[in-house]
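Catalogue entry: protein

Sequence with per-residue tokens
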Amino acid sequence: MKSGRYTTCDHHDHPHFYMQMTYAKVRPKKNVVTGPAYLVVEDVPLPLAVPFFFFPFSSSYQSGFLMPTYMDDSNRGFGLTDGGYYFAISDQMDLKLRADIFTKGSWALNMESNYVKRYKYSGLLQASYQVTKTGDKGLPDYSVAKDFKVVWSHRQDPKANPNSTFSASVNFATSSYERTNIDNMYNSQAMSQNTKTSSVSYSRNFPDQHLNISMSSNIAQSMKDSSIAVTLPDMTISLSTIFPFKRKHAVGDERWYEKISVRYTGRLKNSIKTKDNLLFKKNLIRDWENGMQHEIPVSATFTLFKYFNVTPSVNYTERWYTRKVKKDWDDEQGKEVNDTTYGFHRVYDYSASLGINTKLYGMYKPLFMKKKEIQIRHVITPSISFSAAPDFTSSRYGYYDSYIKDQNGVRDTVQYSYYAGQVFTPPSGGKQGLISFNISNNLEMKFKDKNDSIRKVSLIDDLTMGISYNTAAQVRPWSDLTFNLRLKLSKSYTLSMNSTFATYAYEFDENGRVVPGNRTEWSYGRFGRWSGYGTSFSWTVNNDSWKKIRNFFTGQKDDEEQDQDQNASTEEDGDMEGEATEGGAPKKKTEKAAADADGYQVFKMPWSINFSTGFNITEDTSKPINRKNMRYPYKFSLNSLNINGNVKLTNKWAVSFNSGYDFNAKEITQTAFNITRDLHCFSMTAAISPFGRWKYYNFTIRANASILQDLKWEQRSQTQSNIQWY
């Protein structure tokens, strides 16, 4: 072939770009080997030439080389990245090996493998190891960082096994990996990521035995201080509800004892919190925290006097610990000292409760708007429960002890548990005899609309208040009043408010400090002290919602049918899709652009902006208290305002952005703008971050075809001088 062209543009008669070849040898269905060739864009020859080209032609799945990408970095020097080899192992698995190398000594190895087995599972495994050298050898700023990263994602097909599931989502890396990875230097999200989490889980269900076993392993990393929290394993064995006294062949009415149900939950946990470089140096017995917990609840539900539901229950909990910590006070050192005993330690507790609830219905028909036939239904659900538990701090149980703390001439008695701070919380101290009161309300309204259809509207989804009284407590027996409110304000937003009202009033102690006293707010003729409220919400505005807002204020009405007739009418150009043309092939269906009344094309620019923020109302204890009513003033604080959106300027141009404002720090948060342009067979992307901790820009124009992935021009800023790490 002489003076041939090679292009991936599907405009064959007039391609947007092509490689103008001088001479070439073509081996059909195998490859093309060319002599010198140069690039032509929009019929303009460019001074970009190559001595030869090799284009493989293959319709089969096969292995091949991955061409590297040239890069210039101020700290690493000149380098080649992502070069390597692709192994087409089989139709179920592949392997991609890549490497990076720089002139100042930095290098990296990367492995990536995808695997799939139809109707069974699929997944992705990635592993990276990199050595990053910065600065000049022999100078104080010279450093060498060795990092690795493992990413594993495994998904099981739901049809593979209905009784067992296995899944994995692993993202583990050394604390400095994200800081030294070259690709993250221009990714503000990766650079600002503070935590990484990984999990692997397996569950097995035995339906005939009503048994379920699940196991998981979890890792949480903090990039800020290189701390790591590992749980390996976290196993749960649960027995679903069974009725041990239910007759297999019941005759007649159900007996009362047949309603007794039993459940079981057992949990084994082994965890540790440490630095990532010390993880494999820790001792399993002395450094890891491990234990097991068993819970056996026994309950039943009976109906009393047709209207009252009575639910008695008994709960038994047992914990197995591997260590027992005895504490004492060292007068010479002036600090607390511990004496740890390793072995098997069994701790148990139990409690009993009795709950009674019913429902009250009220109907109200207002006198106004009789044509609407409005009816309001009020459902009240009162409940009362009694629960009791002994004092497990008693010496006869052996769970708690005390010591005398003598500091600065002040002697205090400190009570502690031998098993505090371990994986499972020991039994709480103090005798309990709780009487809990709770009342829930639901308010609904139904009426006839303009079409004489019955509509139901929820006025109050839920309004619940609860309080309890501890008959065994010698001081402050009343709990705080809990308050829950849920209102459905619109189809897309539901207001949920959870708050508390403190029962006991503030007072001054002997040192003049403000502390909760023993007298209730009621004794002063006041309602409980409101603790505050906090919430977060988001709002999305786009073309449709903005049109509705505009019409609401201007009084205009939407006429969707008219818009459809004027702007959304379509005409077929040529034959209908599916009809055969002269050549026998179906002709593609096309649509004319929508036009306005004057015949001009309707301008459409889809856009969307999302706002998210929140607020908190809390007591401002930094301000002086009002001595008259003993109340602190409340302060209102806004959470950070986050804004992100996208605008499609034309069918080819698109802009997206994310930004925000931190009201506490009074500064603009990390901001980034991204612009993309579809150039048919080419694409252009530009990114800029003008505000925030990391400021950068990045511009790339490249060919869309993967075989020409190196046909690109890229310009990046040097961001290293802008990065500040903890």
Remarks:
- The mean pLDDT is 83.
- The chain has four helices and 44 strands.
- The two ends are 61 Å apart (CA to CA).
- The longest helix spans residues 543-554.
